[in-house]
Amino acid sequence: MALTGLQIFKLLPKTNCKKCGMPTCLAFAMQLAQKKAALDSCPYVSEEARQQLAAAAQPPMRLVKFGPERKLQVGGETVMFRHEEKFHNPTILAVTVSDTLSGGELNKRIESIKALEFERVGTRIKVQAAAVVNESGSADSFAAAAAAVAESGGLALILLAGSPDAAAAACAKTTGAAPLLGTTTSENAEAMAKIAAEHQCPLVAAAATAEELADLSEKIKAAGVEDIVLSPQAGDLGGRLRDITLIRAAALKKTFRPLGYPVLTEVGRIEKDPDRQAAAAAALICKYSSIVVIDDTRPQAVLPLLTAVMNVFSDPQKPVQVEPKVYTIGEPDENSPLMFTTNFSLTYYTVEADVEASRIASYVLVVDTEGTSVLTAYSGDKLSEKTVADAMAKANAEQLVKHRKLIIPGYVAVMSGKLEEATNWQVMVGPRESAMIPKYLQEVWK
Ligand code: SF4
Domains of the chain (ranges plus CATH)? Predict the structure, then answer.
């Protein structure tokens, strides 16, 4: 946890010599706490103080990277609640691949996982990893299934085997894939750490309690592996949520390094029923599993989970926005309708879908309201006849259509008179609800 200015001050020489450019050591400490100064600016700080300050500057939860080019990253979180700052690294959703599958069945399973990709409010969201599980008990089958996932491309690899022989065989067949390697227990820790060090993979550590996980992470670290993902094994969902929350609090609030790692949960070990598994996965995404492994490949189960990840890991202080400009839907011409909405993503994509549903090619002018919805923007003075007129001028609306008619959201019908005066265009009041846009365009606009 970051040190306060006063805690830093206690570690400084307190001579007020001004060599650092600050009038006092206390002023320098305050600048350091706010990350506005570098420790090197003080030539007299002791080596002991330097080490303490460096240790305090380390993130309380380690950032762990894996997958091809180590592009997936988990951990590195700094707060318990997203409103305190934001959560940084979204939960990775992974789907299991049993190594009892082979040939066409195995390929079909891999392709069904790769197909779990969707577009939501203009962003592509997808399952990013496959967790190959050593259910066969055979090292060769495990290695073959791991190789098939790696060769198919597009999915990061999580290897879950209790046997170091199976883990070693799979790592040897997936060179360059940088898999996340499990499952390490107190019994096989040294052998697994040796394999992980050789192949430069992060390790999954599994134990029944948070205390045992802390001991295990220390053991793995002593064996030379720094990148660790914890997997608490309490039997039911309640137990897992309790342990994961405890781990997070110990890491972030107490800076307890042995638990300062991201967490992986195999949901199939808690729930077998697919619907209950999806519900458990949603709870684990909210609290605080960095990797959630499910068995389900049904799109209707996976899309809500990916949506939950997107929502939990958005910045609560920054509304999700689209670029303010004119969007074309279909192939509009100079006779097509022109309407405006705001640049709050959810508002824009709802309007876009409803205009598409009307099958009438249209222009949608997106007005910059700092990512707020129509009513919020209007009541907060971010949407007025002036902002709309300015947006129309910037978008060259005069050149887009020749009818000089602008459809406005029904919720801001009150601005129609002033907007007509400001633009010299005819203002048509559209529906209050976006869902009524198709009917409006088909029956009122024509
Ligand atoms: Fe204090 Fe070091 Fe700055 Fe001198 S250079 S005032 S000792 S912090």
Answer: 5-57 (1.10.15.40), 63-312 (3.20.20.20), 326-445 (3.40.50.11600)
